[in-house]
Design brief:
mainly beta, 12-stranded antiparallel sheet, 2 helices, 12 strands, 12% helix, 57% strand, elongated
């Protein structure tokens, strides 16, 4: 790929770190920010101060997958993925009475579907060089994640609220990877522990609706599948269960509805 996904990962984590630093700074300078941006046509800091604590959100985004080197400890299936997509919904609640240093805690439960097509694949047991990959080879996942965020409410003025948080949950990953021209495949499902850290900005459109954009680092741990020929297991160094972590940088945007 033209851009190293590892570099994208490092940049995403750097952005999240900068957001965390900025949130800390902006909450301590909230009065100054209000003075700096105030004018007759600007939202006051309380204009869209939502009285409703509950919300639902709908979102979509893109996944930038790091390379996955599935291994059984003896041989490796090195897999590179195209940019994928993610669609989902969340329900959450703000806890305004439990502020932490001016930051408002928020809890959220999200369900999402993600999918990424296989670009190239190299099985170490066949020597150097990429295998022929079936055009519909992909991995997909159903992700259920519980998260905690900290919101710096209207810290930037103009209804802009930066936030940072993270969460844990599980991903049910479906491997549908076929290659080699002889029905060699990784086609098992696997349910694994997953976690993320995410930072972003929320913008109030009106008293009940807002939009947001964020970037996160997601990892599903030890996702894998048995390597087979058709439905038959493979004996020896090229068989057994192949596993690796599934690392992604996820950029999302969506709408949030307060109720």
């Amino acid at each position: 790929m033209l851009i190293s996904l590892r570099n994208i990962t490092y940049k995403a984590l750097a952005v999240i770190a900068m957001l965390a630093t900025f949130i800390s700074f902006s909450t301590s300078q909230k009065t100054f920010a209000a003075d700096l941006f105030s004018d007759e046509g600007t939202k006051s800091s309380d204009q869209f101060n939502h009285s409703n604590n509950w919300y639902i959100s709908l979102f979509g985004g893109v996944n930038f997958n790091d390379d996955i080197d599935y291994t059984n400890g003896q041989t490796t299936v090195a897999t590179d993925f195209d940019t994928g997509f993610r669609l989902g919904a969340s329900i959450g609640r703000k806890w305004k009475h439990y502020q932490v240093g001016g930051l408002v805690p928020r809890t959220e439960l999200s369900v999402s579907y993600s999918e990424s097509d296989v670009d190239t694949l190299d099985f170490s047991g066949n020597g150097a060089g990429n295998e022929v990959v079936a055009s519909d080879s992909q991995i997909s996942a159903l992700n259920v994640i519980a998260s905690v965020y900290l919101d710096a409410e209207n810290a930037l003025g103009h209804g802009l609220t930066p936030y940072i948080g993270g969460g844990i949950g599980f991903s049910h990953i479906n491997h549908d990877i076929i290659y080699g021209g002889a029905a060699l495949n990784l086609e098992d499902d696997d349910t694994v522990f997953t976690w993320h850290i995410t930072g972003g900005v929320n913008y109030d459109l009106n008293e009940t609706v807002s939009t947001f954009i964020d970037v996160g680092y997601h990892q599903a741990i030890d996702a894998g599948s048995e390597r087979r020929i058709g439905l038959a297991s493979i004996a020896g160094a090229g068989g057994g269960n192949f596993e690796d972590d599934n690392d992604q940088v996820v950029i999302r945007t969506g709408l949030k509805f307060n109720f």
